[in-house]
């Protein structure tokens, strides 16, 4: 916390008058407060540059594996979403999404009036998953495509790396996340940064929960939002509400960056996730639009990328109680003339 020493009130007007008289004589102008460049965090809330409180309501889209499915963004928007979390690859585990491709994703998100959360998937399960890379490596990727993101702070949130630790050495998450955030800030990134939890995103050891305050404080821009993934670990309403309420009470920003209605590690309580997020005014991004394989095809919201074939999960998240259609509000930036 920064503590500012204040002068007695009776002295302030005098100093202000002196400054007003001297600055023009010296050829100087009074410093202006810089306007926010885009999304920012205030009192644990995600705000747009305009000050509008923004609550994510959206889904994940597996762009890096299905680059020919760009039309999915329009379909996701048509179902009511205000945000899409887009899977990218640094090239370490899957073909690299280059600067031109990232720029096109951002353009397509904007054309469809969606806020774009971009994530690097190659970090998934680091320390346990063969081939997974570090958050530092992910930060290097973001720097390599920075030209596609500069000036897009109103529309883009940078999710450093997906599920950046498995269940091995996950205590290192805290230091590694701080270092990655600082690397991005040092490179000139002014975006809101999203940090995923360890333990395959589910934070069952509470590493993120218990260290989020220090990670947030390590961001020189104080502009980091935390993301918890809710699958089998979060199979009761009590677990869901306890986890989310701890962040809210601490005034630390939190979103549910992934969740499903079922999973191989247990049966998440999707009704409780949706209800708690709505009650607390927190964002959620369901996994995922379409294209799942490896035994988790049930997590597809639509069949074969066809927006007219909603699955059970798709009907639940889009059209059910506390779902996207009933609770999503478009980002205010798209109502402005500059959009």
Strand order of the largest sheet: 9-8-7-6-5-4-3-10
* Main beta-sheet annotation: 8 strands, parallel
Number of helices: 10
Identify low-pLDDT runs. Answer: 1-35
Shape verdict? globular
Question: What number is the mean pLDDT?
Answer: 91
State the helical fraction.
Answer: 25-40%
SSE order, as H and E? HEEEHEHEHEHEHEHEHEHH
Q: What is the count of β-strands?
A: 10
Structural class: alpha/beta
Amount of beta strand: 5-15%
- Termini, distance in Å? 35 Å
Supply Rg: 21 Å
What does this structure look like?
This protein has 339 residues and is of the alpha/beta class. Helix content is 31%, strand content 14%. The protein has helices spanning 12-25, 72-78, 99-111, 135-144, 173-186, 207-218, 237-249, 270-280, 312-319, 324-327; strands at 40-42, 45-47, 57-61, 83-88, 115-120, 156-159, 193-196, 224-230, 254-259, 284-286. An eight-stranded parallel β-sheet has the order 9-8-7-6-5-4-3-10. A hairpin with a 2-residue loop joins strand 1 (40-42) and strand 2. The longest helix is centred in the first third of the chain and has 14 residues, at 12-25. The protein starts with 11 loop residues before the first helix and ends in a 12-residue tail after the last helix. The model is unreliable at 1-35 (pLDDT under 50).
